[in-house]
Design goal:
Strand content: 35-45%
Radius of gyration: 34 Å
CATH topology of one domain: Jelly Rolls
Shape: elongated
Largest sheet: 5 strands, antiparallel
Distance between the termini: 89 Å
CATH class of one domain: Mainly Beta
CATH architecture of one domain: Sandwich
Length: about 140
């Protein structure tokens, strides 16, 4: 019987010790600071949702985006224009006369952006169809 009472007493002491340990640990909270840094890779893209038709006057829609802090430039590549050919491009709020060389800057943004731009051809005089290929690069 004495052994049973001693075992119960030991269990009671152990239970009391275990019950008091979390409270003691909780009152001693660690304080500190840390710094997290990350490198985000630069990403720029231009994507045609709808292609404009230079001869048919149907508008196009482009999504352009770049996370470069200083901005980006969108250029159009196309076949060189003959001396008798000309085409004007309305790209967003800008009006651009297409160069006979077959490459032309059409848009420039300062700072990171993702946006949709509507565009269409205007005052077109072409002998053969014209297809634009748009590229984007950080500045």
């Amino acid at each position: 019987m004495a052994t049973a009472i001693q075992n119960v007493t030991k269990l009671g002491c152990i239970a009391a010790l275990l019950a008091s340990t979390p409270a003691a640990a909780a009152s001693q909270q660690a304080m500190g600071t840390f710094q997290v840094t990350a490198t985000v890779p630069m990403a720029c893209w231009v994507d045609h949702s709808i292609y404009a038709d230079a001869l048919g006057n149907s508008p196009g829609l482009v999504t352009e985006g770049c996370n470069n802090a200083s901005g980006y430039m969108v250029s159009a590549q196309y076949r060189p224009l003959a001396q008798t050919e000309r085409a004007r491009l309305l790209y967003g709020d800008s009006t651009v006369e297409l160069s006979a060389l077959g490459i032309q800057e059409v848009h420039r943004e300062y700072g990171p952006r993702i946006q949709q731009i509507a565009y269409r051809f205007d005052e077109v005089s072409l002998e053969t169809p014209l297809t634009l290929s748009l590229t984007i690069q950080p500045i």
